[in-house]
Amino acid sequence: MKAVALQKAVNVIKMDAWTNPADFRYQDETSEFKIGCDQSAARKKGEVYVPKPWEGLPYLAKDDLGKIQVRGFLHDRVARNPDGTFTFPASLSTPEVIRRLSLAWKAHARNNPETKISHQRLVFSMSREFHEALVQGGRNPDMALRGIIERTMRSFQEKFHPGDSVGYSYGLHHDTDNLHAHVFIHPRTRDGDFVGMSEQLQHLAERNIRSRHKNQLKFVRENARQRAAQILQELSDPKADGRLRNNLHSDRALFVPRQGHTERTKHDFRPRTPADFQLERKRAAVESLDRRISSKRAALHEANNGRRLGSVFRTRQPNWLRLMQQAQATTLFRELRELQQNRYRLLSEYRAARRRLIPGPLATRTVPPRKKPKASVPTITPPKPKPSLIRSKPIKRTRPHRGI
Fold first, then answer.
1. pLDDT category, 403, cuts 50, 70, 90?
2. Do 64 and 189 reside in the same domain of the chain?
3. Does the predicted TM-score (pTM) go above 0.85?
């Protein structure tokens, strides 16, 4: 990727200050409210509304479509049930997350001093070059953008609000040519401090005048680009690829298309070839390994929790029981690593076969043929005479005259 494209790999845009209450239905790209907003925006621009291209993204999991992620101090408040228990927000339905998030957002706003804005709104946009590099490298662009957003917001919190917590929510959108995310940030932290998102004015920056603002937006934008550069370095570094292969969570970093290769759309009448069935078998093998890895990880988690509970509720356990539990956990961990390595190998074979069958945009690009240099006739040049080191001019000699 070129340096210019790297600078624009992930761009952060701040929308105008919002004084109206945050409508979290806009973060759900599948909601009727979001579709209605897009239709009205297309009518104002005089354009024709185009349906969402969700079906054309093979890496996208339809189960995660329209999910709203909640982070910061709002996560625990959304996860809290009325009976005092907790439910992870990712396991809740999107309407339930919106309802709980709205209540927690308004309650925290009432308990703190009133501000002029209701929420800060940022847009994290990914360039198409960066998107293609992630897909070609076997990374899920959605997971990469989520990691960039969360790590950037964590750095923002450590920089401007150390020891505190910033509450925010975001949702990924696939309705444009560029994958992007809408981030809503609460104007108050957990302890009640104001969360600003200012930027130095352009005319002051050109004159090298230091502004009184903290310039948080510039920090967020530069940090997001640094995270994107780290991901690109991992994609191009074979050592990072090896670390990813042996990572305990390597199956979460890579992706498998959910759509089968033997299936065709309604108006696609191409015949199925043996290569399609071979590619489908490879995909199904990776999916079966995914299920086995998830069950093995759950068993390992249960075994570790059993050991912790036994150490808490029992003052002393027999040595044979502790050794047996430790051996069981070690066996499960070794089996999990073997499954992950097999999955990585099968996924590499699948990607290579898919690249041969369905070439990407880089593979289909025509490269002009290189012109061959014309064969030239070798010419022999006579060697130059070496200059005399004693005399610069030759001496003219004459024969002596002889009489008859």
1. very low
2. yes
3. no
- Are 140 and 189 members of one domain? yes
Residues contacting 220, CB < 8 A, separation 6+: 12, 122, 152, 153, 156, 197
Strand partners, 11: 125
Report whether 221 contacts 202 (CB < 8 A): no
Indicate whether 191 and 291 sit together in one domain.
no
Identify whether 384 is part of a domain. no
59: its two tokens? 């890496």
Name 329's Cβ contacts closer than 8 Å, sequence gap at least 6: 300, 303, 304, 307
Number of domains in the chain: 2
Q: What is the pLDDT of residues 342-390, one digit of tens each?
A: 888 888 788 788 777 765 443 334 445 555 555 554 555 555 555 554 4
* Structural element, H or E, at residue 150: helix 141-160
What span, in angstroms and rounded, lies between the C-alpha atoms of 258 and 138? 14
User: Which residues neighbour 140 within 8 Å (Cβ) at sequence distance 6 or greater?
Assistant: 59, 134, 253, 254, 255
